[in-house]
Structures
1.
Amino acid sequence: MAKILLVDDREDNLMAIESILAQDGYTFVKANSGREALKVLLAEYDFAMILMDVKMPNLNGFETASLIYEREKLKHIPVIFITAHSYGDENIFKGYRAGAVDYIYKPINPELLRAKVSVFIDLYRKNHQLIAQEQKLIAINKNLEAEVTERKNSEEKIKGLNLQLLQNIDKLEAANKDLDRFAFMASHDLQEPLRKIRTFSDRVSSKYSQILDEDGKKYLDRMQNAAQRMQSLIQDILTFSKISVQEKQFVVSDLNSILGEVISELEIPIREKDFIVETGKLPKLAVNPGLIRPLFLNIISNAIKYSRKEVKPFVKIHSDNGESSDSKYCRIFFEDNGIGFDQKYSEQVFRMFTRLHQRNEVEGTGIGLALCKKIVEEHNGFISVRSKENEGSVFIVSLPLNLKNEEPNFTVGEPSVNNIQH
């Protein structure tokens, strides 16, 4: 909104000018003398124009205008003098030399005043737009110059980093494979002593439970439970490691068949919780069936484990069959009405050993969803989740419709399930 400074020693003249221009939506600041106008301009200089009476005590309009234009920040503000006298050419030229752009003679013609003010306000706005554009272009030019300089300065560094990156790729890939093999072998070797711990603890429990006191029984139960959790953890780590070290084989498979096997395997927990599994038709895709099975198993198991007691639990499994806007992928949805979680943890839940709930609330190793993420990525797909506390979660698995296998192991046939277990 344009701001106008009105300067006149008579309050009635100020009110008259304001009433004429008020309908055009301007903002007004009023001063009753030249000195007061100068005080205003010390604090404010964003005026679109100044309407100033010529004849004023102490400082007249010409003198005030001369002092105003001594300040660099104020030189852009146009001044229109208002006078009741028709000065000769010499005085009129004096006003123009003082900085005036025009004169308005009293008695004021309202339409003429509004027209002249409108012209200068329009010029003021356009001038400010040009100034803003000029400043913007200057800033852009400086940024471009800085960017060019930065690119030139960092060009050699980037070349060096790229060369180093290329040199390290093979080392990193070899190190990752070695790490996966190590995790696989270490977890495999841990199972034998763990089996002995469980075997002997079971023997102690069956043979000596009658002579153990309550503390002894409690300690034995804790040992057996800890051994069971450790076995689950080792098994999950083994499963996670197998994904990277096993040979990739993709088979055109009926996902409905794999899903049916998973639901059959979960028959007991489904029946115990009176859990409803609603399934829609899933497509046939090129997948590794042995990996898709634990993928489905983990997601549905989570839906069962994290169900709410106050509602009848269910999971709805369906697919868009690649009919979404992104036709390169088929999306499979797992919608449940469980306890859910805050959406801010939607990425964290797919990290290794991440648990959002305490072990005494829900059993688990914190590997299941990390395993799901790795399985989906092995298929060149991705997994995400939408969730809300106490309302449920929707896990979305996106798998390529036309998976390009990197190895010559692509086959067509019925799905075969290997020995990877949850």
Note: Residues 49 and 120 are 7 Å apart (CA to CA).
2.
Amino acid sequence: MSSISSASSPPAAPRQVFAALFLVAAGALIFEIALTRLFSLFFQYHFVFLAVSIAVFGLSIGAALARLIPPGPNGLLTADPSRRLVQVLFGISIAYPAAALLIALLPSTASIWPRAVLALIPFVGTGFFTATVFEYFSETSGSLYAADLIGSAAGLILVVVLLNSFSAFTIVYMIGVVLAGMALFLGLRLQAGSKWLQAPAAGITLLILGLNLMTGRLDYDPLRLDIDTAPRDKTMLFILNDPEQEAKIIRTALSPFARVDVVQSNDPSVMFVFTDGGAGSYMVRFDGRTPDLTLLFTIEALPFVVRPAESVLIVGAGGGKDILMALAGGAGSITAVEVNPAIVEITRELGEFNGDIYDRPEVLTIRGDGRNFAERSQDAYDLIYLNLVYSQAAEPASQALVENYIFTEEAFEAYYDRLAPGGHLAVVSHNALEGSRAAVTALKALQNLGIEPNRGLDHLALWMYPSEDPTLRTTVMLLGREALTQETLQTLTFGAQSFGMTTLFSPGEHELLFASLRRLSDVDDFIDPGASYDLSPTTDDSPFFFKLDFGAPQAIRQALTGAVIVAAMLFAAAALLFQKQPGNSPVRWLVMVVYAALIGAGYLLVEIPLIQRFQLLLGYPILTLSVTLGTMLFASGMGSLISQSWETGALIGRVALAAFLIAALGLAYRLFLPPLIEALLPAGMPVRVAAVVILSALIGLPMGIPFPSLIRVAGASHQQVALLWAVNGAFSALGSVSAVILSMAYGFSWAFVAGAVCYLGLSGLVWAMVPRRAAAA
């Protein structure tokens, strides 16, 4: 096939270009998901969300560079379209393994920015390639956009499969190999590029992948990291670097949820189970016969000494210590729920050490989300036990972005409904702040069920271990289905005091903490907006239980500032260049730039809350991401493909209708999704997955129409297509950060509203242009 020729009118894209775009889009989505896994290994959890912002920032910058860097007669930025595409594709194939390799080898974790900048580079290349393709072939933008979105959907499904068997670093090296092969193929088919330079580059990417698969030396190595700059919540690093413990990793299991490591020290009675280097739990040596009763002489075992609990539900069973405490406490039936399948797998592998704790006859093991299970279960339990379900270091701001449906009003209502007569709900938290918030949320749940705060306090007790280290001030909260009896309170007080704990709240005795609630009819009135910390009840609409500080966390504020600056700069640059375009009226260029901005922000403002809402319905975070985002991308690709068959003259009216439909669906989802999800929770998994697919596709299909239509119209009139991509990407980044801020401040429902407003504004903007187009015709 001959190389692509430059032409006055946009040519049709060759099949090889569609294939390349498909693979580039798939690679970018795979890298975005893999990046969340990489960042989770090196940094505190609340930095992981930056992966999305890095992706859209990089794509936006790359698209801008595709327009702003002029092509030259020779070199990397050749003016020949075929050579330019092949060379950029090769650059991307090298950028992926190079970025991953440097991310792995950097010793310091003091700042996220060095690794963030490295991660940005492949996305910049992807944005450059994608914008260049659409610039050359804008006439077929509908079909190209379909290839782009469907490629992203395929990448999402593939990365979920790969993460079960390979590390995130290995997967990124694989992307480099695949894209290098595609670049070689594209260069041969288009008769472009120099195979003498490209073939060795492809060989290098293959060598890096092979070395990592054989040796693992180019992967995450906790011993390579500088312990002085490590985050406090990466407990595994400190244990491995403690010479007195002589610790080493003996097992590693991988899953899309997280990497799990089992660490063995010189204490033969216990092992540590770490999720991404933090979130540790214990695996206790057990002979499978008689549980060690000394387990009951620990702070977190306090709920098991109240009275014998025949049936126990454990949410977040981890390495099995909580199950052993339940056995030691006399439980005859234990339901152990663990959301991370890798933890269950690795605990079963070490069954000889832990007495096959997950497979004992008394234990029913459930792989899934504890809240989802509680909503769907019809069983009653004497004790529901939540022991540090998210167990990271407990500095108030360190977990601000951790959305957790385990600790919401609706969750506590579900737990209360699952309690047998005389049953108790126990929550073990990191510190007094979390314990107090859990108590306030539980009281709000009782109020929702018709039990006023004055009476609800009689169901509640709260204790704390008074450590000098604030991160070790463990609290234990107990909530009874009925008011706690004096006998129960005396037993608990005696047990707590024997562990050295102090009473934070006990009905009729120590009531200072919640004394004002005795006089209030609504728990919300107890919250003081001028307090140092936010203890307000969390809900499913804004489930950020660990966000204890008022206002947006620093990480989000920084991301928002960066997003606003980049979006404003690109908007201004695009407006300036459009204005200089021959024959362009101010109204025309302004409409195009605003159009691209509204789509960019609107898509993310709808996508993010939709994924969060469906997480409660499906229970598994990675399943939710795969089904929701995969369906949306595929459906949007189909919408784009449909729009390609429309005549250019018909696009503007149909885009307006599509945008109005998206806005209407967004507002409808804001109102009706919560009750619909509640109604669907008891249904089987196939029914729930089918519902998510239908609802995601319903709104995803029209969402794929506006942007390729804009590119098609712009390309036909020789407008700045690459700059429209840049503006769209920049405002996508702004939309992603805004969705998080709105969700934390007002709830996911208002992020839906903001997305609907963007599409409503787009619909009005496009309709306003119809008379002008008709008059011009």
Note: Residues 1-8, 389-402, 772-777 have pLDDT under 50 and may be disordered.
3.
Amino acid sequence: MNAPVSAIDVTTTEWTCFDVTIEDKVAHIRLKRPEALNTMVRAFWNELPQIVRDINDNARARCIVISSTGKHFCAGMDLAVFQGGGSTSAPASQDKHVNAEAMRYHVRLLQDSFSCLDQARIPVIAAIQGGCIGGAVDMTSACDIRYCTADAFFVIQEINIGMTADVGTFPRLCKLIPEGWVRELAYTGRRLPAQKAREIGLVNEVFDTHEQLLEHALGTAREIASKAPLAVTGSKVMINYARDHSIADALDYIAVWQTGMFSGPHMAEAFKAKAEKREADFPDLAPLRKEM
């Protein structure tokens, strides 16, 4: 068995922007700065990938739910992060081209803060209430499943402050909703209300209250956690691969995957548990080895 990749306990660490709990093999990451509309301060960009990668790499849970507190899910990047120009604080140089290269690198770091959700071996569910604005659209579009409350709305806020969204909105939204809607939202900065978001496929369900939203999101996460983890991660890998490749390539890749990771014992346990009317007992994913 591989040793855990770090000694951090994400559930007891005091995070600036998040509370983290793990129960029933479900990790619940909750934004906890409602008084500041859960804006994405500098600590946010460091903490989120650290939390997600620890849960993922150490196989601490089988599904992640990201939710929030207060009236709004998240009002996007905190204005202080913009100090120094653009969406980064890359080191200044006398040469604008050198600065541009550093800027590109720094934007990639910000993108990685959300790409970790897409790259995680386990599914990630977003439970959204109120405003999901700017960077919050980038974050939730990197999740596997999105649910929201009836008062929720989505805004590509960057156009309203004179910039182009750069942390993941366009590459991911264009895979999730019709391109015409991406263009309208991107060019106008209009609000996309919850019901319309459901109609065009951005969210799966809309709930009247925050309590109902969380109950459903956590219930779905527990249902996912009851399935064979290897089959779940295989499904996520295949869905992501199919999204990014041709049908022919995706068919070949699933064939290759199955030659190495098809599990007869896991299938046998699923059938046996069903016959015996009990919960199946599947092994967790193995922790990842990060060093020799």
Note: The chain has a mean pLDDT of 93.
